[in-house]
Amino acid sequence: MTPPSLRGAQRATRHPPVEGHGAGRLFPPNRVRGRNDVAAFIAALAVLVCLALPAHAVRPDEMLADPALEARARDIGKELRCLVCRNQSIDDSEADLAHDLRVLVRQRLSAGDTNRQVVDYIVSRYGDFVLLRPPFKLDTWLLWGGPGLVLLIGLLALGRYMRRQAGITAPPPLSTDEQQRLAHILKDEASR
């Protein structure tokens, strides 16, 4: 087996440095590597920003000719949940059901309904679950109060645990008789 100090020398002889900039060095200068790292970071950041932008799934054939009605349809679409994708609005979802809901919203707006009437019509068919922000009602109290309830239970459990830990005292010190017996046991164990 080759010692670690010789492995690096063998690697250097197998892959000699390229002539020119950095000749005689095993690695390129830190300046070049630093620029490449910054460029890679900027490229990765650009990709993440592009992925984070909302992708509107509204198809061109769904859009209304009247820009005011289309803007209203988009506002309503941002309030309605896709029942297939769960936490996406119907505007952002590619699901067929979301497409059907977008078409239904546009049909109701074209028929002359107000925004509230359109939302009420869809809620009457699908329930409050279709709303991204359901109203606070008796049916939805757990949805709205659940996180606070879980936090409260956690804080109470933490407080109880802390009180128990504070109440635990250290065991009393060994008496001289116990210390002598312990020393005798340890001495016997060491001699074995």
Structural class, please? mainly alpha
User: How large is the count of helical segments?
Assistant: 7
Number of individual domains: 2
The low-pLDDT segments are none
- CATH topology of the largest domain: the name is Helicase, Ruva Protein, domain 3
Give the strand content: under 5%
- Radius of gyration in whole Å, from Cα? 35 Å
Give the termini distance in whole angstroms: 41 Å
* CATH homology group of the largest domain: Cytochrome C biogenesis protein
**How much helix is in the residues?**
55-70%
| SSE arrangement, N to C | HHHHHHH
Q: How would you state the average pLDDT, rounded?
A: 78
Question: What top-tier CATH class of the largest domain fits best?
Answer: Mainly Alpha
Largest sheet data:
none
Total strands: 0
Q: What is the global morphology? A: elongated
Q: What's the CATH architecture of the largest domain?
A: Orthogonal Bundle
Structure summarized in a few sentences:
The chain has 192 residues and is mainly α. It is built from seven helices and no strands.
